[in-house]
């Protein structure tokens, strides 16, 4: 049985006729977000825009919402979330917006109600830094980008 957390949501005037974020299947991790645009938005190749969703949320402390691309939109049209994943903090109360970018070769039109992204709500931990002179050793050590799974020459 999934753990359910109650989250307050406010439908904004520009989202009056749109569905609230919702899971499309029983075991979906993300809820689909719809475009709350008043008129079509055409994204030229390489262009990006903030697309409104028509709602605001009040996440409980200890949670964040991540705005992620929809795989179908990315695979079929090369349209994705620019700052993926976008983070919505628990203290933000404004309208959720989605920064979409068109990586495709053709213009892409965003119409009212189009499912443009998905949102995953997840717990987060707050940390406290403990500054140290040295860090514990690991097998990887300071090996950087591309260093894992590579045989090192001595």
Q: CATH H-level name of the domain at 22-123... which superfamily? A: Deoxyuridine triphosphatase (dUTPase)
**CATH class of the domain at 22-123, please?**
Mainly Beta
CATH topology of the domain at 22-123: Deoxyuridine 5'-Triphosphate Nucleotidohydrolase, Chain A
How big is the Rg? 20 Å
Low-confidence stretches: none
What is the correct CATH architecture of the domain at 22-123? Distorted Sandwich
Largest sheet: 4 strands, antiparallel
Number of strands: 10
Strand content: 35-45%
Q: What's the helix-strand series?
A: EEEEEHEEEEE
Distance between the termini: 51 Å
What is the molecular shape?
globular
- Tell me the helix content: under 10%
* Overall pLDDT confidence: 94
Instruction: Give the count of helical stretches.
Output: 1
Structural class: mainly beta
Strand order, largest beta sheet: 1-4-8-6
Explained architecture:
By secondary structure, the chain is mainly β. The chain has a domain at 22-123: Deoxyuridine 5'-Triphosphate Nucleotidohydrolase, Chain A. 5% of the residues lie in helices and 35% in strands. It has 1 helix and 10 strands; from the N terminus they run E-E-E-E-E-H-E-E-E-E-E. The chain has a 4-stranded antiparallel β-sheet. The radius of gyration is 20 Å and the shape is globular. The mean pLDDT is 94.
């Amino acid at each position: 049985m999934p753990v359910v957390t109650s989250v307050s949501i406010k439908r904004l005037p520009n989202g009056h006729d749109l569905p609230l974020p919702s899971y499309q299947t029983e075991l979906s991790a993300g809820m689909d977000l719809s475009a709350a645009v008043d008129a079509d938005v055409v994204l030229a190749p390489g262009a990006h825009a903030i697309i409104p969703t028509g709602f605001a949320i009040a996440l409980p402390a200890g949670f964040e919402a991540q705005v992620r691309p929809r795989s179908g939109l990315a695979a079929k049209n090369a349209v994705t979330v620019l700052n993926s994943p976008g983070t919505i903090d628990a203290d933000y109360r404004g309208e959720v917006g989605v920064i979409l970018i068109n990586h495709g070769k053709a213009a892409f039109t965003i119409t009212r109600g189009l499912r443009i992204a998905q949102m995953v709500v997840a717990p987060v931990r707050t940390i406290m830094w403990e500054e140290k002179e040295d860090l514990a050793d690991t097998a990887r050590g300071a090996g950087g980008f591309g260093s894992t799974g590579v045989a090192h020459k001595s």
